[in-house]
Amino acid sequence: QLTKKLDLRGNSFSVIPAGAFLATPYLTHLDLQHCKVERLEEGAFRGLGRLVYLNLASNSIAFLYQESLDGLSSLQQLILEGNRIEEIQPGAFGHLGSLTVLDLRANALVYLPDMVFQGLQVLRWLRLSHNTLHVLGSEAFAALPALRRLSLDHNELQALPGEALARLDGATRLDLGHNPITYVAEEALAMASLRHLFLDHASLQDVAPDAFARSPQLRMLDLRENQLQGLPPLAGAGGLARVSLHGNPLLCSCLLRPFRNWLARARVQAEGACAAPPALRGRPLDSLKPPEMRCSRLRPPPSPTTSSERSRASGNRQCPRGCICSPAFHHGSCENRDLQEIPRDFPGDTRLLDLRRNTFRTVPPDAFPGLKELVSLHLQSCGIRALQPGALQGLESLVYLYLTDNHLSTLAAAAFEGAPQLAYLDLDRNAFTRVPAGAFQLLPNLISLHLQHNAIRELAEGDLAGARGLRWLYLTRNAIRHIAPAALAPAKMLEKLQLEGNHLVEVPTAALRGLSALSELKLSRNPIKHIGDGVFLPVASSLQHLYLDNMGLEQISPHAFAGLGPKIRSLYLENNKMSNIPNMSNFTGLEILNLQDIPFHCDCQLLPLHRWINKLNLRVGATCGSPAEARGLKVKLSTTFQTCPAWGRGETVEANPEKTTAASKPSKKKRSGKSPSRGFNKSRA
């Protein structure tokens, strides 16, 4: 009860239930990294009023609801990096009044609604890097008065989100690098305290002269690795001290003289070099003299014109009877109203529409008229059997569509006509017996596809036609026995493939060919008894997380992991039946290795594994299953290896997984420098 720091990394919890930590009310630090957590139940952390640090990184959390983090009134750091959070409901952080650091890096966020961070009154650093953000509500960052640093780099922002950023009066550092931003418009950035702005590795072609006129404290501007051929004098940026332009194709002609003269007058240090004309190529900007910058036939490309702002629906605040419409959040909700038809006449600026737990049966054509700004549509548990052609017509901003827990068994491509921005499609827990072939032809921006807990029996060629941008494919808990060699070919950008709990009897090696970006492969709970040599070679250059647990696996061939190595960060092998594993001494990047509930035969053949585990700074959970005198002992601590002839000498022992006994003797044959051919049998000692 008096425990203050609790480290639970590398376990398998799936769900954190309500009141899970009521027995440890004095906790200040809780680490739940790599625990396969998928859901935080409401009230999961109630009773932890003293907790200041919570790490939930590298799990599978997809949603944050309003009560998910209730009870953490003293929390100062919340780490949610590396989950698959797609959407955050406003109010999810409302109970975290002491939070100073919120880390949401490497999730699946596309959209931030208004007031999503409400309640974070003392937050100082918000980390949103490595998501796929391209829609930010104008009030997304409202109510963050203490924020000093905002990280939005490595997203999909196509324009500088000036309206949302204008709410951050106190922020001093803004990271926007690695976004496809092409132009910074007039007075685009109004941040009164901003001192450091990073716009590196974007797609910038032009910057307006007064782009930063409303950010008077700006001192450092990083524009490295863009497509700028020049810059105008940056009027209004009177406090600027340094501009970095390395990696831009700068044209040092007379057209750049005004900028060069402004640098000299304002005493601004400029870093960068000329790319043209040939006579000045490679010359540092600060070494140029105006007479050298002559006019030529070369001209910079015309500045991109700023796109006109989308006209917004004004003041029309109608709301269907029995529903709730929130003007402040642009939300509409008719949840659990026993409706049999989809209501109409929601305000035109509605962005999130929650229609869960009704009985619609079908979604007819043009079911959502006038909702051009709708981003997120929730239709879970509505008894839907058909999504008719044209059902989503006019939803040109729709990013999220949730159809979980319905009765859909087929889909036509025409059902998605009119919703070209759809990126997240959740079809879990429906009645599909096969992937609806060709249904994704009209969804070029589809990133995430959920088809878990259906009855799909195979993946056939053509099933994913058109899904060329797909990154995450979730097929857990189906009945898949076969995956055609070309079934995944259209999804060349696939990063995550989850096949847990299906009926596969072998690793689908042929289907993995061409998936050069695949970083996570989950094959847990498939009846695969044997893993042959080289089965992961097609994805060896990219794979980082491999799940082979709970399969009843009896044998792993000596070269099953050929090609894999330092890139592997986590490997799950727990709860299988083999007694030895292949040599993994080149897996030098491991952060998680789970070897629990494997009946290792702890004789001299396992000595190299014993030595390797002792060198790892990881808890792997490996225990001996035999011989009888070692049963139940940790492989890492077992003394049975001290009787081995090679004990203390670092000799290599030849392992034979097919014939491993307690009386095995090391080979007397002199070793060559080559790796042995069987088992985990090359010691690093």
TrEMBL record:
Highest taxon of source: Eukaryota
Residue stretches of biased makeup (Basic and acidic residues): 283-295
Domain LRRNT, chain residue ranges per copy: 318-352
Location of the LRRCT domain: 248-296, 599-645
Principal location class: secreted
UniProt-annotated location(s): Secreted, Extracellular space, Extracellular matrix
Positions of the UniProt region annotated as Disordered: 279-318, 648-685
One Pfam family linked to the record: LRRCT
SUPFAM superfamilies: L domain-like (SSF52058)
InterPro entries: Cys-rich_flank_reg_C, Leu-rich_rpt, Leu-rich_rpt_typical-subtyp, LRR_dom_sf, LRR_TM_domain-containing, LRRNT
Keyword Lyase: no
GO cellular component: a single term: plasma membrane
Record keywords: Disulfide bond, Extracellular matrix, Glycoprotein, Leucine-rich repeat, Repeat, Secreted, Signal
Family as reported in the entry's similarity comment: Belongs to the small leucine-rich proteoglycan (SLRP) family. SLRP class IV subfamily.
Name of the protein in question: CHADL protein
Organism: Pachyramphus minor
